[in-house]
Amino acid sequence: MRNFMGARLTKFEKSAIIILPVPYEGTVTYGSGTGKGPDAIIEASYHVEFYDDELDFEPYIYGIHTLPNMEVHDFKPDNAFEAIREKGRDLAKSGKLVIMLGGEHSITPGMVAAFAEEYKSLSVLQLDAHGDLRNRYDGTLYSHACAMRRVKEYCPAVQIGIRSLTRSENRLIHQNQLPVFFMRDIRTQKNWMDKALENLTQEVYITIDVDVFDPSIMPSTGTPEPGGMLWDEVIGFLKKVSENRKVVAFDIVELSPQPGFIAPDFMTAKLTYKLAGYILKNQISNIQCPTSKTHPERSKKAMDNIKKDDLSYIFQLTDSATEFRCAMRIDPKSFSSYDELFEKYVKIINEKNMTTESAKNLSVIQDCIFEIDDNGELLDLYEGLILKQNDDIVYLEEMPQFQLVQSKDHPDFMLLDINVDRSQITEEGNPYGYNIRKWRKNQLIFEKFIYDCLKENYGAEADRIIEPETLEDCLRFLKAVGKKIWDSDFELYSRFIGDKLWFKDPAETLQNIIAGRGGTCTEKSAAMKLISDAYGFKSEYLLGGPGAKGPFPVDALREMLQTLDFELGKKYMIYWEHTALLYDLDGYDVMIDVTNGNIPFLFLTGQDIEDLLKADHKKSIKVKMVLRDEEFYYHVTPQDIPENLLAVMQDWIEDVDLIHVFDDGLGLLIRHDYYVWPVMYRDEDEKMEEYSWWLDLKKKRGFSGVEMLDNFSLPGPVVNDFKEKYPQKFVDIIEAYNYLVERYNESYRDPDDNRMYNMAYMFIKLSET
Q: Which pLDDT value is given to residue 29?
């Protein structure tokens, strides 16, 4: 759930910085508490500024991934060494900047041993008050007092800041002429940094014991030693090392946080981020920012989205998460920075400068990159938004640089091609303001839908109910509109036709419903909430699912949303498989479920809500699903969970369209009378095996009919009945065929398998009515 610097956690493979917390203190001999060091550093890092004014650089934009705490606190020292070395082997092979946060200094040798296997010319730079060169201490070879003795068994080391050691350690240093720079040398030798560098190989692992600092600025350590280094001395040296050597990893150890004394924790967090910045700044050409998977369907050349009438300067903007793209004609004399460019051309849509398609896409991009207030107005760009031109980061205060584009098909033009990367945005969005903004963009269409719905149910009373003032009118409004949304299809076929949206936002879902289609439970609940927000009803999401009796796993679901690692807790995912709404009408509660898909329309008040939502002895809703009968449980939950779930499905979960269809077993359409399932097969045997499975299920479940459609020109009686009852749905499902097959092969087919998937439709007639 937590990430270093409080940055949005990016996936491991897309992160330049990997943080490994190792809260181990198995051999401490004086002050204890180093096991609490990693958590204290990470917590303090939330308050360190992303921007480094010295470097004019923000390291976090290259992606930070904080791994879970390494659970070695109960290990014996030798077992901890082996566990850390094993973990380090995988990390060393990743080629990323690995930062280990301790814990005591005994954790260093295991990580060094792993990196020495990967980097054959590795050397270690130690900043420390103590020599740590004993061969054995307190009966173990792996004590914190032996850390550098073990390190030297794998690679050479240079020691900086030493001012405390035993006679035997001193003898070892002089007999072997080890490169040790005592504090007395640092104070008297002006060129000590250059001499230290001469003893380091090109590839360096840095280990920093915070007691290298003077206790006046670092008292929170187990064995503080007076006469230590100061901040500028340490930072100046680390900067020089980073500029002249390739630093492949580093660790910071021996912070022992003191309750109520946060300055040392903050200093250690800043040291961590500062050193990471030095390293990345000097290795920047080999590092790429996190990027999202490209969507080939939406990728178009700049000239496809511009008006072709004597253009010379073109600005193309792409949202890297969704691949929505727009291109427009601009006047390069009207701005002098990216900040002014976005204010003039991105925040305000001028359809005279772009095609209708570009204007539509820009409208979507606006709502993703600008903060939105409660009135739906755009504010500033989100903090943490990354702008990239040809994979190079550009900054808002910079002057945009155009590139000349020449082709045979179009006149020469100057192109400014910018991608916006939202993966590192650190601010929370405003779902309410987002809904208000989306409503206003389509207000006439949406208000007509509401009025028609009320007119259909209440006739002439609709004119009054559409502006409800009494509790009774509020209930009638919500019930009629909720039932209308419930009546729409529970379907996913529309994700593969039209705009081919992988997951629809509330406004897109409502437009889809108005067009005679529908959506999933999350999409339809979000559409209902869009209406609620627009008409001033106070509402919140309920979450639940089949068999999800409780208690509700808040922490587990938040962690999955933060990390986007849904393997972490598959058993908990049933708790957000289903979505409903709870209304507060000035103290009068109403629960509404607009899902459909064989889930009954729920419009509950009073004790009926209490029975479903109480913490203990919950009641359930019995649902007759296609494959089995299930009991659905509902939960009141912190709203960040459903709101963030909707956000990640809309933008960040790759293949969410396919996951819902296939992995979640939702198919393409679920009605009370029909279920449509896409059968993916590579040969006739696979196809017929699937068909046989459904025929067997027909007998077990008592379905009225099962029929496979693999030849669209020869439908049988089951398909013909569906086609006659629902002609437009049949057309839409057939239209989805090509793109659905393309998406499936693109995402699910093993690259080593040369056989392509084909598809047939399985029409299951659930009942005669």
A: 65
- Asked whether residue 162 carries a pLDDT value surpassing 60, the answer given is yes
Reported residue count of the chain is 769
User: Tokens in use for 186?
Assistant: 């640092």
Q: Residue 102 burial (CB < 10 Å; 0-12/13-18/19+)?
A: buried
Question: Among all chains, which residue has been given the structure tokens 């609490």?
Answer: 36
- The residue out of 253, 268, 286 marking a domain boundary is 286
Total tally of structural domains belonging to the chain: 4
Q: Residue 107 in 3-state DSSP?
A: helix
Containing structural domain, residue 397: 296-421
Q: What is the pLDDT of residues 13-40, one digit of tens each?
A: 889 999 999 999 877 766 578 899 999 9
- DSSP labels, 140-158: BTTSGGGHHHHHTTTS-EE
Residues 131 and 72 in one domain: yes
User: Over the stretch 706-755, which tens digit does the pLDDT of each residue have?
Assistant: 999 998 888 999 999 999 999 999 999 999 999 999 999 999 888 888 89
The whole-angstrom separation of Cα 223 and Cα 499 is 64
Instruction: Kindly give the pairing relationship between strand 180-182 and strand 157-162.
Output: parallel
Tokens of 551: 């208690």
Structure tokens at 499: 């705009």
Tokens of residue 333, six digits: 């004399």
| Sign of the dihedral through C-alpha 127, 129, 133, 138 | negative
Contact between 98 and 20 (Cβ < 8 Å): yes
How would residue 312 be classed by pLDDT, with cut points 50, 70 and 90? confident
Cα 320 to Cα 299: distance, rounded to the nearest angstrom: 10
What is the per-residue pLDDT for 405?
Answer: 87
pTM listed for this prediction: 0.79
User: In terms of DSSP H, where are the helices of 58-101?
Assistant: 77-93
The answer to whether residue 302 scores a pLDDT higher than 50 is no
SS3 621: strand
The Cα-based distances of 352 to 327, 355, 393, 531 in angstroms read 12, 8, 30, 31
Determine the average pLDDT of the residues in 45-71: 92
DSSP 282-330: HSGGG-----PPP-GGG---GGGGS--SS--EEEEEEETTT--EEEEE-
Assess whether 653 and 693 both reside in one domain: no
- Omega into 103 within 30° of 0, i.e. cis? yes
Greatest alpha-carbon span in the chain: 102
Beta bridge partners of 414: 313, 404
Per-chain mean pLDDT for the chain: 91
Q: Would you state the torsion angle of the CA atoms of residues 218, 220, 221, 222, taken in this order, to the nearest 10 degrees?
A: 140
Helix (H, G, I), strand (E, B) or coil at 47: coil
Residue 654 belongs to some domain of the structure: yes
